[in-house]
């Protein structure tokens, strides 16, 4: 079956716009969406430039961001001097696991802040509630990721 490249392009731009609205850099969102929509989950800078109609410099900046946040890795093409940019396996699981690590860091900071502000002050109460919320999210995220692995096994999806 041949792909409708126009429909794929619309999907890439739509998802990239949603990622941008959620706070991701615009060009990084476009590059990420293009990689996600590629059959191999990997593309070269030239392929990304052509697919997104952007400069190699824009691709480089986007990939630098995506690499920094561990959503993409850089691999050398065998027998070539060109790099391929590759989505990580279990991308969403890894992304949310890293977010959970950030929550843990924030949780510690909020506990320290609540103690410093005093539990009986309005600011201390707000910070303590924030800490409680982060703790709740952390606990739920751990169980959620475990349930996802079990559920994914029942879906018959190909390994990524």
The coarse overall form would be: elongated
Strand neighbour order, sheet with most strands: 1-3-2
Number of helices: 6
Report the helical percentage: 55-70%
Radius of gyration: 20 Å
- Mean pLDDT score: 88
Query: Structural class given helices, strands, pairing?
Result: mainly alpha
Largest sheet, strands/sense/barrel: 3 strands, antiparallel
E-strand count: 3
How far is the first residue's CA from the last residue's CA? 21 Å
Proportion of residues in β-strands: 5-15%
Q: List SSEs in N-to-C order.
A: HHEHHEEHH
Q: Enumerate the spans where pLDDT stays under 50 for 5 or more consecutive residues.
A: none
Quaternary organisation: single chain
Features:
160 residues; mainly alpha; 3-stranded antiparallel β-sheet; 6 helices; elongated
Detailed description of the structure:
By secondary structure, the protein is mostly helical. 69% of the residues lie in helices and 8% in strands. It contains six helices and three strands; from the N terminus they run H-H-E-H-H-E-E-H-H. Strands 1-3-2 form a three-stranded antiparallel beta sheet. Helix 5 packs antiparallel against helix 6 (122-155). The protein is elongated.
Compose a concise summary of this entry.
Strands 1-3-2 form a three-stranded antiparallel β-sheet.
Helices and strands, with pairings:
Elements lengths: L4 H17 L4 H12 L4 E3 H8 L3 H13 L3 E5 L6 E5 L3 H27 L4 H34 L5
Antiparallel strand pairs: 1-3, 2-3
């Amino acid at each position: 079956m041949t792909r409708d490249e126009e429909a794929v392009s619309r999907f890439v731009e739509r998802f990239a716009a949603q990622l941008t609205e959620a706070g991701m850099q615009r060009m990084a969102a476009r590059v990420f969406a293009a990689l996600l929509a590629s059959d191999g989950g990997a593309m070269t800078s030239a392929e990304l430039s052509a697919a997104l109609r952007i400069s190699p410099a824009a691709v480089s900046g986007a990939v630098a961001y995506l690499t920094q946040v561990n959503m993409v890795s850089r691999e050398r093409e065998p027998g070539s001097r060109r790099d391929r940019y590759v989505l990580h396996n279990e991308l969403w699981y890894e992304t949310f696991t890293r977010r959970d690590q950030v929550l843990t860091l924030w949780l510690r900071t909020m506990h320290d802040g609540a103690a410093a502000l005093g539990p009986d002050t309005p600011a201390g109460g707000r910070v303590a509630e924030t800490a409680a919320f982060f703790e709740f999210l952390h606990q739920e995220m751990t169980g959620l990721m475990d349930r996802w692995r079990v559920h994914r096994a029942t879906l018959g999806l190909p390994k990524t």
